[in-house]
Write a structure and sequence with these properties.
By secondary structure, the protein is an alpha/beta fold. The chain is built from 7 helices and 7 strands. It has a single domain, classed as 3-Layer(aba) Sandwich (Rossmann fold), CATH 3.40.50.
């Protein structure tokens, strides 16, 4: 798919994503990002499907519950307006990966990276390849991301404890638009998973799902 065609398709998608009253068939699909380097890109398999179900029920979105998997370098990446990336270990973006992912983000796509513990030291270097002149900037609690349907006055919530560090949300802003969100020391994806996987309380899972819903809502509306 050409870069210009992708922009046109995304414009159509974003203009009608938050439907009040769903169609009988889903109109949109999101994906998990598959990457190289040995990290477990497949971690938290129930996370994104559960988030989609939550958004469809509570935000009245019309997203397919069949979550796709897409490789960083695959042209099919351009078919998904939102991609989610997670894992615990190493991440390596090839030059082909970088070119494809950069074009995707510049064309209107949105990448959410959730460190599942152990990814941080690797992903920061790879993100620098995407936009060498841009820095990851910390998003303050006043950022619109935290004030969508659900209110998070203190910013990104802490879902799982690892190193006794505060939860952080970082972003890459390209031409005034947040194109990549990186959530660190929060483990949102663990909170999205089936309750029996991590044993989180229902209140903590709800907090994680509501923050995830804000991310979806922001990515599909406020970010464009």
């Amino acid at each position: 798919m050409s870069y210009s065609k992708f922009i046109i398709i995304l414009t159509i998608l974003f203009s009608g994503l938050l439907l009040r009253g769903q169609d009988s068939h889903a109109s949109y699909q999101v994906a998990v990002l598959k990457y190289r380097g040995g990290g477990d890109w497949y971690a938290n398999p129930t996370a994104l499907p559960n988030l989609v179900k939550f958004c469809n029920k509570n935000l009245k979105t019309n997203i397919s519950e069949d979550v796709a998997t897409v490789d960083v370098s695959d042209p099919e990446l351009f078919n998904y307006p939102f991609v989610h990336m997670t894992g615990h270990g190493n991440v390596v973006f090839t030059s082909e990966d970088v070119e494809n992912l950069r074009n995707y983000l510049m064309g209107g796509g949105f990448l959410h990276i959730d460190d599942n513990y152990g990814m941080d030291q690797f992903i920061r270097n790879e993100l620098k390849k995407l936009f060498p002149s841009l820095e990851l900037v910390e998003l303050p609690p006043s950022h619109p991301l935290f004030h969508q349907t659900y209110e998070f006055a203190k910013g990104i919530p802490k879902i799982h404890e690892h190193d006794d560090k505060p939860a952080k949300a970082y972003g890459i802003v390209w031409e005034g638009r947040l194109v990549c969100l990186y959530t660190y020391e929060t483990d949102l994806g663990d909170g999205w998973e089936d309750q029996e996987v991590h044993g989180d309380s229902e209140s903590k899972r709800l907090e994680a799902l509501q923050m995830g819903a804000n991310i979806i809502e922001y990515a599909f509306t406020a970010a464009h």
